[in-house]
Amino acid sequence: MNSLMDLLPVIIPLAIIQVGLMVAALIHILTHSSYKMGNRILWIVVVIVVNTIGPILYFVLGRSDEERS
Amino acid sequence: MRTYLAFCKKEFQENWRTYRLLSMIAVFVALGIMNPLTAKLIPTLLNGMDMGGVILEMPDPVALDSWAQYFSNISQLGMLALIIVFCGLTANEFAKGTLINVLTKGLTRHTVILAKFTVASLIWTLSYLIAFGVTWAYTIYFWGYETLPHIVVTFISPWVFGLLMIGCLMLGGIAMSGIYGALLAAGGVVIVLNLLNLSPAVHRYNPVTLAGGTYGLLAGTSTPGDFIPALWICAGATVAIVVGCVLTFDRKQL
């Protein structure tokens, strides 16, 4: 039977990646004030709610090329 | 050749600085980890559900379940990530007008296309290998080492289909000068190929069966011969599309 302990070697790296991506995207959102599309609130919600794909969507579609403000 | 390598380097740096490389690797590592985990968890999840009195006897998960997840995830989540990350590959250049400078300084147009395709393919190859490696490592960790039959045909097929997708994204981006063109081309190709797949007669020749269909080789329900024609057609179509990109781009007004 699967106990949680058996699965820890899988769950921990997965969590690190997902949280890491989310934090990287959130830092980028909060240090920039303009976006290619959408606004800050929208991107924060997307990045937090949609795991893995949310941060990717932000980096590809929302991230503007301007310097940080 | 020197300009080609220089442009490859520039492309690589662009992918690095726009977080595309990082996103691809993160998604494919996550995808690789998810496969054995889902295979392990599905019986527990199903047993936990109230099915209105129906008792489901789930067999214990085996290594094959992990690979089933791998092919289903690669063909859906993997292709989705590939398309999202590379949809702006050629389209963004038109939107920003950044190619005009380098092209007027003497960089040939086909160099641009070939370098873009090379770098995108390299990133895809790396991500794909990572997902495969991670799944394999965890599968061995949970279920012990088993040799995989027909390993080359089985695992090269989704990769070749990914190359076809990159080609479609580039051609769509050039022909319709925008991200939407790229998405339309890649999405259109997938939809048309899936519609064609409704007829069993074309399965052998249809590139879309490569995306997830080679699981049958591991399960023992199909033979490599079932996929070889589709592999050749897919590889040929990719080359044709890249040549098409070069020809379209040569006539394109920037």
Using brief descriptors, characterize the structure shown.
heterodimer, A: mainly alpha, 3 helices, B: 254 residues, mainly alpha, 11 helices
User: Major sheet of chain A: size, sense and barrel closure?
Assistant: none
| % residues in beta strands of chain B | under 5%
Helix content of chain A: 55-70%
- Low-confidence sequence ranges of chain A: none
Looking at how many chains there are and whether they match, the oligomeric state comes to heterodimer
First-last Cα distance of chain A: 52 Å
What does the model show?
The complex is a heterodimer of chains A (69) and B (254). With 69 residues, chain A is mainly alpha-helical. Chain A is built from three helices and no strands. In chain A, helix 1 runs antiparallel to helix 2 (40-49) and helix 1 (4-31) packs parallel to helix 3. Chain B has one domain. Chain B has helices at residues 2-17, 20-48, 63-86, 91-96, 99-104, 109-143, 151-175, 179-196, 208-212, 215-219, 228-250. Chain B is built from eleven helices and no strands. Helix content of chain B is 76%, strand content 0%. Chain B is mostly helical. The two termini of chain B are 24 Å apart.
